Amino acid sequence: MLEAARKLFAGPVAFLKSAPALQFLPDADVPEVAFAGRSNVGKSSLLNALTGRNALARTSNTPGRTQELNFFDVGEPRQLRLVDMPGYGFAKAPPAVVKKWRFLVNDYLRGRQELKRTLVLIDARHGIKDVDRDILGMLDKAAVSYRLVLTKADKIKPTELETVVAQTAEEARKRPAAHPDILATSSEAGWGVAELRAAVAESIT
């Protein structure tokens, strides 16, 4: 699966469109894998590492920069679509705008038939927070399959990382829609990126 996934992401990867509301979603004609996470968890950086592109997804030090659902097509012919979701938990925006984002994300996750898996990114330095549990609970309730992915794993000591992985896995086992295996990644160091590609490819087969 590692080699097949490498070949998949070695092919064309292109930005398709941004959707600020449900009526702007692209046709549901290809399997989709969504990326969710707290603002500034490193979502855009990991998407760039995953696809081997430097600037596929915009990165920013300002939390809450991604305000829409961003869609990227992978493969030629197209084989899957990656979805970069707005960060949750913090945003430098008026409450009404944040509320709009939340409704957009909720409605997309609950109603998108082509959504095969959601990857929920957790900052390895902080572990699962209550704001993460909110979206995990929503995914469980909606019966949307998801997998927990630790980001910035190179920023903590190996012993600390082992503890965070164990704690995250323990929480995942308690949740009905969660994949039991935890992926630890670093977009800077390249840790776990090949395994993440394989996880994405596996979820659409």
Pick out its properties.
GTP-bd_ribosome_bio_YsxC, GTP-binding, septation, alpha/beta, 7-stranded mixed beta sheet, Rossmann fold, 6 helices
CATH superfamily: P-loop containing nucleotide triphosphate hydrolases
Task: Count helical runs.
Answer: 6
Residues in β-strands, percent: 15-25%
Low-confidence stretches: none
Radius of gyration: 16 Å
| Termini Cα gap | 11 Å
Q: Care to count the β-strands?
A: 7
Main β-sheet: number of strands, strand sense, barrel status?
7 strands, mixed
Helical amount:
25-40%
Q: What fold name goes in the CATH topology slot?
A: Rossmann fold
Mean pLDDT: 90
Secondary structural class: alpha/beta
CATH class: Alpha Beta
* Assigned CATH architecture: 3-Layer(aba) Sandwich
Order of strands in the sheet with most strands: 1-3-4-2-5-6-7
Number of domains: 1
Principal-axis shape: globular
GO molecular function: GTP binding; metal ion binding
Family: Belongs to the TRAFAC class TrmE-Era-EngA-EngB-Septin-like GTPase superfamily. EngB GTPase family.
Function: Necessary for normal cell division and for the maintenance of normal septation.
Organism: Sphingomonas aracearum
